[in-house]
Amino acid sequence: MTFPLQPGSHIFTTPSNLQLSYTVCGNGPLLIIQTPGWGIGPAYLTAGLAPLQFYFTLLYFNPRGTPPSSRPLSTEMGSNHMSTDLESLRLHLSVQKLTILAHSNGGSIALHYASSHPTNVSKLLLVSHRLIGYNTTPELQTFLESRKGDPVYDTAVSRLKNMTATTDEDFRDELFEVLPWYFHDYKENYFDFLATLSTGPTPQAVWARNMQKPCDENPEAELVDKLGSVTAEVFIIVGREDAVCTVGNAERTRELLLDGERGNKAELFVIEECGHFPWVEKREVFFEKALGFLRG
Does the global pTM surpass 0.70? Predict the structure, then answer.
């Protein structure tokens, strides 16, 4: 008999007959790690967040559409759809409330869940998260101007505007090309981070990327009008130089959470000289702040 929180890899079946996978490691209170849904996979989080396993039982949740989790209908790949899988996971684990750490688009998924199931989330740590429906264009234009002329950044931007991969292998190559844009100092941090994405022959899933994008452009995926129902204690960490999920994005999330009618708590911490992966570029301050919130 396999217990749901036994260390190792697990697969369970949801009420909608999806097969979803997760991996468990560490010791202590349960902490759910919500992976982004666009096919990047959990390997970079498993490597980067490893120090947390000395304080928590970590459960890395692999979204629908990213192997070995199964594929749903292509019209059911939005972050709002993926949030329903968190409820299926909670029921599978037989726990009353979840504490969640979510990175990037994982934050979109977790916010959808915390808004639709407010009594089922106790704490939510949002790291470089995306608020679907918030317009980052003015901030991104500032980054484009300030980074213009750097050949590596220029190449990354060109590829970001033209990601056309149809195979997992080509998607991985495209991802490697755009990743410098995510860093404040790619010269110092890019290659070490790259190694965490290289587990297995094809750890990235292009189908998930190609299906989630149009789903998240639908109105029902937007979050800006839904955060008033969140009751969880929320802590937001963002890098000042995050040119993907910006400081303005994080500030707007906090404003919307504080405007809620249910007395939720929301704090924001901005890490200077840091991009989209704070545990890489500012490791010490990231873990200090993360542990302070999660263990507080």
Answer: yes
